[in-house]
Task: structure prediction
Amino acid sequence: MEFRFFEIYRSSEYLLLLAKGAGVSASLAIGGGLVGFLLATLLAVSRYAEVPVLGRISAAYVEFIRNTPLIVQLFFVAFGLPLLLGYSWPFWAHALLALTLNFSAYFAEILRAGFSSIPSGQLEAGAALGIRKATIFRKVVFPQAVAAMYPSLNSQFIFLFLTTGVIAEIGVTDLTHAGLYIDSRTFRSFEVFTALTVIYIVMALSFKAVLNAIYRSAFKWRTVR
Amino acid sequence: MSAGPKISARNVAKTYGDMTVLERLNLDVEEGAFCTIVGASGCGKSTFLRMLLSQETPSRGRIELDGAPLPGEPTSDRGIVFQKYSVFPHLTVEDNLILAREFERSRLFGRSFGSSRKAARAEIDDTLEKIGLGSARLKYPAQLSGGMQQRLAIAQALLKRPKVLLLDEPFGALDPGIRADMHDLLLGLWEELQMTVFMVTHDIREAFKLGTRILVFDKIRHDPQAPDAYGATITYDLPLTRKDAGPPPELAGLAMNADTSTGASA
Ligand SMILES: Nc1ncnc2c1ncn2[C@@H]1O[C@H](COP(=O)(O)OP(=O)(O)OP(=O)(O)O)[C@@H](O)[C@H]1O
Ligand SMILES: [Mg+2]
Result:
């Protein structure tokens, strides 16, 4: 069997599709990651602070999301909920909502572990200085927890990014979607999926590099000696 | 200010569930005293300091500050330094002190205004110089030696301008050589700021070197059937003069058996 990578990519149409798809995948992952992180913070704080009803709801929500497949969540957001609530958004918006909800549950679990990992002496020291509880959380617990959990958040994000390919299933023209499309036109499956693999690897490693650079500049105190 | 004692304890006891940690504590401490506290591990010395700080409340009896019941929560008139974990590792020396001033901001102003911020800076500069950390203001705790970290912890406590300073084995983790420097620093601050000091230590020589008065906590009542039924109390309360060469004979053995005498209850 002979491989003909050139045949697929000589058409600028296909190259453009792949580039656009990569852009869509990256944007939705970053958007879902950022909004998901904010939502995760609310979820984790309400559990950590044992907020009466909200804490329970957060716990149930996190369990629910982490024990159902992303693709089911995606279909639910894209096809189930619109029937119930009568909204109709573009495909990418359904995908963004589903990814945000999905990411937030995984991040929340990591953050909560981070909050509990802060030595109680830090809380006592804050209290002894007469600082209010909410301020201690905001200025002592939260920054230290995020720093401690950053490597886990980082690899969780990469992992979740790699699962975003399923959004092709609801018609979002992401990287996987572009690959499937080109494959259906050319029937050069080996070349197409080799190319997809390489692009995903490069993107994942780039995310990792950027996130590591952010870590080094945002959490200097963990690296200085 | 009243002419009575700065701090007094009347029949104070502290229990956790069925376990009595401290009992029958009676004490009058005059303003400006430097009380050192020694006793076996687990006998309730830290618990006593936490009660003085209002982080714990006595189960029985009462503690008074300037003749009035202790406030229900830590206030700026009392500062504390722990053995460790009392500085914030993610903040520079300077930011550690700025955060330590947060109590004022949240309690009094809500936000610090331009002029008060300037005053705060001046005060932080002043404290850093006084404590010997002037050149380290932009460093993180991980970049400081143990002694420097404890200086920072002391500086944090002093920013509140406390009249009562509580020290819980503040030098326990430091090398002996550094301790001597810290003793000089502490005595200087105590004289300059005219504070009443309570300091827990496991080093009996340190207790005699620094204190004007020594309090020995010990558990004298034992019930073999119920080891937790009785707590420790103050068994010796002696005035010291700084010229004392060392512990008097009846206390000479304390330092050595301090860690074993209540081993059964640990
Ligand atoms: N919050 C708490 N709940 C239950 N028990 C506690 C609590 N705090 C302290 N204790 C118990 O009270 C006893 C006294 O503790 P404390 O820390 O005051 O001792 P200590 O004299 O400071 O000991 P060390 O010299 O080791 O620091 C210990 O047996 C401890 O387990
Ligand atoms: Mg203790």
Observations:
- The domain at 6-218 of chain A is CATH 1.10.3720.10 (MetI-like fold).
- The pocket of magnesium ion (ligand 2) is lined by residues B 45-46, 168 (CB under 6 Å).
- The CA atoms of residues 96 and 126 of chain A lie 39 Å apart.
- The longest helix of chain A spans residues 12-48.
